[in-house]
Amino acid sequence: MNQASGRLSSVRRDWRERDVRVLIAALVVAVATVATIALFASHLQRTLVSSASAFLAADRQLESENGQPIPQAWRDKATERGLEVARMVEFSTMVYGNDNFQLVAVKAVSEGYPLRGEIEYQASADSPREMRSAGPGHGDVWLNPRLLRLLDVTIGDSIEVGNLELTVSGLLIREPDGGFSMSALAPKIMMNAADVAATGVLQVGSRVEYVNLFAGEEAALDDFYAEVKPDFSPSHEWKSVDDGEALSGSLQRARRFLLLGGSLAVLLASVAVAVAARQYAVGQRDTVALLKTLGVRGQRIGRLYLSRLMIWGVAGTLAGVVIALPAFWGLASLTARLLERPVDYSIDWFALTPALVTALVSMMAFAYPPLQRLRSVPAMRVLRSEPGESGTGIVRDGLIALIAIFGLIWLYAGELGLVLSLLGGLAALLAVLALLGWAMVLLLRRVVGGGNAWRLALVGLYRHRKASLSQIAVFSMTLMLAATLLLIRSSLLDDWQAQLPDDAPNHFLINIAPDAVDDVEQFLAKNDLAKEAIYPMVRGRLTELNNEPVKQAVSKDREVRALNRELNLTWMNSLPADNTIVSGEWFEPGQTEGVSIESQLADRMGVKVGDVLGFTIGSQKIEQPVTSIRTVQWDSMRPNFYLAFPEGGGLTGLPATWITSFYLGEDQKLLLNDFTREFPTVSVLEVDHIIDRIREIVVQVTQAIEAILIMILAAAVVVMAAVVSATLQDRQREGALLRTLGGRQSLLVRSTMLEFALLGFFAGLLGVVAAEVAVWALQYRMFQGEFQWHFRIVATLPLISAAVLSVFGYWQLQPVLKVSPMLLLRRLE
Amino acid sequence: MATGEYILKVTDLTHRVDLGHDTLTILHDVNLTVMAGQSVAIVGRSGSGKTTLLGLLAGLDTPSDGQIELDGQVISQLGEDQRAALRAQRVGFVFQSFQLLPALTALENVMLPLELAGQKEAASQATELLQRVGLGDRLTHTPRQLSGGEQQRVAIARAFAARPKILFADEPTGNLDNNTGQTVSDLLMALNREQGTTLIMVTHDEHLAARCERQFSIEAGVLTEPASQPVDNPPPRTAQQEAL
Ligand SMILES: Nc1ncnc2c1ncn2[C@@H]1O[C@H](COP(=O)(O)OP(=O)(O)O)[C@@H](O)[C@H]1O
Ligand SMILES: [Mg+2]
Question: Which pTM value belongs to this model?
């Protein structure tokens, strides 16, 4: 009890010390930033996945392409695990209405569909669009609006699907999993799955796809998959959100950015804690020497400081978490407004782990070493300080810090590339810094002071060279980290912008017969629709690798989805602009042999240039050697192909249809009706809603990135303020003395601001250059963008940091300037 | 009282500080005239108002009432920056607690006023002065590495560096032992003579005070000059005491 109250009063005494406050503040900022980012990243992950899940209308889909329904027993197992289940059946058929026949794609859905997302629906052509969370009831059918004209029916009429008459009860604008499948051949209708049997359309051997939808806990989904997977046949396909090619790239990059932001927060926090602890330890040396003369032994001193550190650590961590929670809710509600849907504010407590580990590590690895070394402060110091004692232990502390930082980022980001890129940038920075320090001492020694603010500032830099260098070190590190984030952010946004420009193609024309190609091109040209290249498309399976069935050739533990289904094969002479060759050579003019394979598929199959691929197309088999491996921009919304042959090559003579894409504005939608009338056999795939969705996600992620950037910048400012205020007392003392000795206020202000501006300029320059190095490495390894120098940022950041720091300098001087030097003199005594 | 040029003239100086609930009068109606080149000691107990008076005389603060004329300028009418400029050119300081900047070496500390005055040869002049005070081999040492007496010698070198017309010293030996104090005061007096500086020194050390040409005493903010005496004559008070 007595001891406890003693503790408490000593905490209160500690709090009165500025360095302790700075140290605790640094820890609070560290924990708050890391925790907020981690909480938000986890939240964003959940929202993104759930908003992406809408693309599947579920969390997972199980598809069967062999015309066999998926066993009821599997669905029962899923229900037992607490998963939601729904079914759908997809097939093409002719429908009849009002004397017209039309080929349609039928999507028959069960109760519960969609498990994720909503169906966009219109009660009639003139009523407003509305969102529905269930499909048509028994006996009802919803039509693609174009069918109203094609079949010449209206709402309330009946149409015949096989033997069954269904009532047209609405218009299907889009379903969440409307997808991006190029095999969709005809306008879509949606009916109830329970009515399918009565149509009699599905015969043995009909082309039909049975799909089961599942939603629920990730763990339950994984368990369910593990349980049924052994019974899968090759035509069963398990789909998750990540497989949505159009989105996975964006999601992946967003996730990486959040990780990067979190890592930078960790780094910044460590720097702040280390600086504050060092400052505190330096200030404590006299106290320790005094304690020693009073007979306190070194070990007890060590314990004393360790227990204080622990108290501060717990207090700082708690305060950090308390700040992080509302900050997280703020961020979450920001994205909520954007998404116009209720947000899940629940807290993923597990996401707090990195913050707690950061607190522990930064206390033990950054704050403790300098305090621990206090044990060995000589008692003699009370009488006289020993020259040269200040530099001891820096190397050891640095090493411990480096290892700790390395470990922390690794733990946090789990990406060695990221850790190495950042540390590489830091190392480059420290090397340049050492050089700069040496040059500074050499050059500035020659400057003689004077009544001139510039010279006084330069002399000031030299006089405070130790403090100046360590301040430059901390500022430039801080700026480097902030600049890295800033640079990555802008290139990320540019990338997204470039990938989905406003006129990105949003409609595909599929199934264009060879003899209709010219007419289609004319139609597009006549209506001023800019089309992308037009490609032939042959459907076939990749069946052999080096004369061995692929199923055996590709090792079992690798699951290659592309091998389980029909692929779109094409031929092309020139490489699409957004593809790049990573291995081998693109086809020479006139070359007929060879095939070019997409790089990820090649990786997964272990295929190299020179390997021979065998394809089964209908009843025909062809074989071609791989002559090149290329990357494909899957999220570009242009026709993309895993496998491309040269014109006149392996695909010659095989039945092909053609595909192209183009941009159609919202106001030109009616053109589609003319087009369908003119080319009844060509399918139009409208992907504008997918693009809208991707844009929405990009906007959401961008907002998050901006918010995190602001937080990191705020943390950076706190770190810099902490460092600047560490020398506050010395500077105030110096300012007071200079005034007593006759320095004018204005001179003092100008020279101090200049000195800080110079510090800021150098720190900014170093920081931004180091950031470029880090970004170059990151871009190359992680974000796959192309590296560019960011001249604007390189040019402006040093100036901004000079300005900010000179304001800091001004702010530091205020207490010196406001009061009469008399009072200062008294306070100094 | 000697005639000739006065360098410092204080008329009816009163200083009060506001303590919120009431005001405290620290100095009452102080009058004082000091001729150029004179050395003056002000003796008084701790808390009697010595530092306050010195600060006002040097223009570090402005008095509540009265007028101070320093080297021809009425400092109570000058602005903050003008007073600073006046100090830079004509005033030197020695403090009881030395007031060296811990981050700077001895040499850099002495160079400080020279640099403020915009002197080119700051380094060589400062070196010379440090040699003069016997610290020629301690140029690169920081205050922490110097003893109290050595620190005060650096401070004296700094005070004389800009060749001030008038030097204010606030208990220059107050923090030092007798022997060291003796060395420091010897230096102070010697440099003062060499440069012909006017010296105004506050102290409670009677010995040191006795080495000045004039002595004042201050008690509870009231300054009195016991009948001005040449240094070689015993002060009348002492004579009376002997008589008793
Ligand atoms: N700003 C102030 N506020 C309150 N009291 C003050 C202030 N300045 C001086 N004093 C008081 O005035 C008296 C004289 O102070 P000072 O001039 O420092 O005396 P000395 O230097 O002779 O010891 C002291 O009692 C001191 O506490
Ligand atoms: Mg005093």
Answer: 0.64
